């Protein structure tokens, strides 16, 4: 049995963390068979007057295997995950949400699937999304973007409930961009991915901090930070519109030679100019996004900054 590190990004979760840790204490000894285990909770700048941090400190004091990390400010879920993953000490790393939607008992399914199929990463895929129509649509769109960035078919079954071998973090040990996608980084170390259907509970405590706008922003950051697909799309649009322009030119010249008439009318000219101007602005916008990424990299913005560590891990 391998040792296990459980990583928990926390955001306004002072009420849900105690029952989550209590359940992990019941489940983890049965999964490790005597091997050591730990839980690393990262407070990602929770704006709740220090309630989440106080809960983490209390848990770290009451459970010797719990380690708390307090970030300087809110950096985002994946940045917080990366911080905790780099602190993890054991052979297998499990990432789990702080809102009790991922039952710790379901970790056994992912571990069994990982071992039985000799995989490096296994996702606990939900049977169906449970966040409302707009959130579910945004989530599916994000996964389509992620599939392009990851380059693996399993991307459609990605979830925040995952287990992977700790050795994979060597592939992104020097990663320093402020834009983080743990799932893309894992593809830098392996192609052996899998997914197994797990039970996901309805959220009963608090409200999710992952809004529709944050999902959209995360998708944009992923596709511009880890893929050249937008540049390729801009090139294809430019090529198609250039071909369209040649066809229009042939039409105009052909009509003049055959009928002795020129194409008249302001609407025709205005529409052609609008099409080409729009394509140019789209391409410039895409290039601008990539230049912004380069700019932020040259600014040396930190991926995260730790204010304090709590516990003995």
Could you say which structural class the secondary elements and strand pairing correspond to?
alpha/beta
Gross geometry: elongated
Distance between the termini: 20 Å
Q: How many E-type strands?
A: 8
Tell me about the largest β-sheet.
8 strands, mixed
How many helices does DSSP assign? Answer: 9
Topology:
Blueprint: E1 4-10, H1 17-32, E2 37-43, H2 51-62, E3 66-71, H3 77-87, E4 92-95, H4 107-116, E5 121-126, H5 133-150, E6 162-165, H6 182-187, E7 193-198, H7 212-226, H8 229-259, H9 266-299, E8 306-310
Parallel strand pairs: 1-2, 1-4, 2-3, 5-7
Antiparallel strand pairs: 3-8, 4-6, 5-6
What do you see in this structure?
With 313 residues, the protein is an alpha/beta fold. It is built from 9 helices and 8 strands. Strands 7-5-6-4-1-2-3-8 form an 8-stranded mixed sheet, with helices on both faces. Helix 5 packs parallel to helix 7 (212-226) and helix 8 packs antiparallel against helix 9 (266-299). The two termini are 20 Å apart.
């Amino acid at each position: 049995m391998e040792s296990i590190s459980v990583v928990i990004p926390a955001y306004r979760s002072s009420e849900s963390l105690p029952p989550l840790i209590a359940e992990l204490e019941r489940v983890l000894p049965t999964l490790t068979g005597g091997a050591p285990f730990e839980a690393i909770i990262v407070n990602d700048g929770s704006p709740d007057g220090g309630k989440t941090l106080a809960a983490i400190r209390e848990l770290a004091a009451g459970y010797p295997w719990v380690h708390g990390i307090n970030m300087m400010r809110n950096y985002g879920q994946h940045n917080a995950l990366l911080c905790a993953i780099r602190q993890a000490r054991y052979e297998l790393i499990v990432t789990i949400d702080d809102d009790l939607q991922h039952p710790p008992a379901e970790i056994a399914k992912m571990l069994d699937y990982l071992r039985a199929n000799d995989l490096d990463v296994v996702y606990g895929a939900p049977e169906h999304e449970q966040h409302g129509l707009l959130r579910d649509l945004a989530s599916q769109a994000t996964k389509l973007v992620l599939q392009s960035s990851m380059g693996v078919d399993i991307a459609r079954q990605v979830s925040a409930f995952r287990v992977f071998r700790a050795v994979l973090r060597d592939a992104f040990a020097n990663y320093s961009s402020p834009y983080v996608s743990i799932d893309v980084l894992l593809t830098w170390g392996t192609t052996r991915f899998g997914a197994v259907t797990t039970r996901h509970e309805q959220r009963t405590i608090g409200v999710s901090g992952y809004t529709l706008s944050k999902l959209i922003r995360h998708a944009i950051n992923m596709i511009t930070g880890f893929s050249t697909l937008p540049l390729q799309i801009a090139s294809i649009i430019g090529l198609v519109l250039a071909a369209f322009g040649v066809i229009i030119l042939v039409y105009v010249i052909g009509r003049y030679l055959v009928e002795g008439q020129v194409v008249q009318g302001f609407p025709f000219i205005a529409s052609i100019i609008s099409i080409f101007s729009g394509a140019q602005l789209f391409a410039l916008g895409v290039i601008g996004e990539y230049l912004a990424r380069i700019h932020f990299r040259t600014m040396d913005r930190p991926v995260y900054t730790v204010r304090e560590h709590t516990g003995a891990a």
